[in-house]
Design brief:
alpha+beta, five-stranded mixed sheet
Length: 150
C-alpha cells in the first residue's frame, strides 16, 4: 500500500511500487481528469502537482512519492472556479480538450510562482505541454487573462 494525500484527502493505493502515478489516479482512485497522452513524458497531458510542482504522472512511480501531496485537475477547484478554469472558458481555449487538464495544471504551477508572467515567460514555462489541435494562442491568452483577473 502506498499512502498519498490526493486533492486534500489521505488515500492508500494498493499497487506495485513502480506503478506510474497516472494509473493509480485513473484506475485505482477513478480520477480520470488526468489524461494518458504518450506514456513517455513527452506531451504533458498527464500533468499533476506533487508537493506543488508540476510533474508528468506517466513517469512518476508511486514509490518515489510515498506520503506526498498530489493535486489533480479535480482538486484544483471543486466547482471550476479557479481563475484558470474560468479563463479557459472565457477564451474558448479547448478544441478537442484532451490536453487541457495538463495545460491548466502546468499553467497553475506558473501562476503560483509568478502571478503576472510575461508572454515570453508563459511560452517558456508551457514548453513541453503539447496541444495537437494547436490552440497555443488561446492557451496563452487564457493564462494572461487568469493572471490579470485572478
Amino acid at each position: 500500500m502506498i499512502a498519498l494525500n490526493v486533492n486534500g484527502k489521505a488515500v492508500s493505493v494498493d499497487a506495485e511500487p513502480e506503478t506510474p502515478l497516472l494509473w493509480a489516479l485513473r484506475e485505482h482512485l477513478k480520477l480520470t481528469g488526468t489524461k494518458y497522452g504518450c506514456g513517455g513524458g513527452l506531451c504533458g497531458a498527464c500533468t499533476v502537482h506533487v508537493n506543488g510542482k508540476a510533474v508528468k504522472a506517466c513517469l512518476t512511480a508511486l514509490s518515489k512519492i510515498q506520503g506526498a501531496s498530489v493535486t489533480t485537475i479535480e482538486g484544483l477547484s471543486s466547482d471550476s472556479s479557479h481563475p484558470l478554469q474560468k479563463a479557459w472558458i472565457a477564451e474558448q481555449t479547448p478544441q478537442c480538450g484532451y490536453c487541457q487538464s495538463g495545460q491548466i495544471m502546468k499553467a497553475a504551477e506558473l501562476l503560483q510562482s509568478n502571478p503576472r508572467p510575461s508572454r515570453e515567460q508563459i511560452v517558456r514555462h508551457m514548453d513541453g505541454n503539447l496541444c495537437r489541435c494547436g490552440t497555443y494562442h488561446r492557451i496563452i491568452a487564457a493564462i494572461q487573462r487568469a493572471s490579470q483577473e485572478g
